[in-house]
Amino acid sequence: MLDLPVTQPDRMVKLVEGILTKGSRTRPISVHDQLADVGLTSIDMVSLMLAVEAEFDVSIPPSDITPENFRSIASIGTMLSRLTGRA
């Protein structure tokens, strides 16, 4: 069986799904879904930010902790690309 690399968006989807599952909320999500619309609370967003920092070995500066950067998985990906120089 061919082992395909897991992409950044796939890893972030798994992080969000893990947070939703902890709160007994399950719903398939896509990279463009609004995270608040899929059920993430403000506390969940903090958990997500910490999980993203750990998963991608990056420190998110306070100036980047904005609703715009955490609106969707796609917006988090854009921020990560900029922070890691992969934009």
Structural account:
The chain has a domain at 8-17 and 34-83: Non-ribosomal Peptide Synthetase Peptidyl Carrier Protein, Chain A. It contains 3 helices and no strands. It is an all-alpha fold and 87 residues long. Helix 1 (8-22) crosses helix 2 (42-56). Helices cover 47% and strands 0% of the residues. The chain has helices at residues 8-22, 42-56, 73-83. Residues 1-6 have low confidence and may be disordered. The N and C termini lie far apart (32 Å).
Secondary structure layout plus pairing:
Blueprint lengths: L7 H15 L19 H15 L16 H11 L4
Helix pairs in contact: 1-2
Uncertain segments of ≥5 residues (pLDDT<50)? 1-6
Helix percentage: 40-55%
Strand content is: under 5%
What's the helix count?
3
Bulk shape: globular
Rg, alpha carbons = 13 Å
Can you give keywords for this protein?
Non-ribosomal Peptide Synthetase Peptidyl Carrier Protein, Chain A, mainly alpha, 47% helix, single chain, 3 helices, disordered N terminus, 87 residues
What's a quick, concise take on this entry?
By secondary structure, this protein is mostly helical. It is built from 3 helices and no strands. It has helices at residues 8-22, 42-56, 73-83.
